Amino acid sequence: KDGNQWMGTRHHGVLINGKPHIGYPEYERAFVQERINDIMRDSKDRIWIGAVNSGIYLSTPDGKGGFSFQRMLNRPEIRNEVNILRQLKDGTICAGFGRGFILFNPDELIADTTKYTYYSAENSAMASEEIRDILEDEDGNLWVATVGAGLFKAWGDKKDLQFKQYTTKNGLPSDLTCSLEMDQNGNLWIGTEYGI
Questions:
Q1: How does pLDDT run across 15-53, given as a tens digit for each residue?
Q2: CA 107 distance to own-chain centroid
């Protein structure tokens, strides 16, 4: 929207308009060398960054033509490897990690970094750890692509989701699912390690 091009890199953090951004907080050195898996602009034009080793950051304009970065989520229990960030129709943000996924209201998380709901194999019927992709369908259901446990459909209250699992037993070519896309006819396309 503001004309800036954001790029997540493998070993150099975030590039803005092709240049490394400097002026990070006290964890500057770690973030500059960080691998960035996803960057998302939310409905209020805030930039959220998913990093492999240090969790979720929020970037805001610093008033001097640059940006400041604030670590919003860094919890060892969810293994801070952020793979995917998605904003749902109701404004909730969903973040898929190396160990489960979380749902949060961005305004609430900004005010209190403990305000999120966490789902993993340890605390739900979702029998998987690593999340590769998340998609919301027209009915508000979440589809969750996992590494090794196939695909999950999640529905219900966001603080108490219900889950149904789909695997090779249901026709998937592989239980390692990588990407999800919904076409204009409402068909769900699932990318796996052995094809679509």
A1: 777 776 654 544 444 456 678 899 999 999 899 999 887
A2: 17
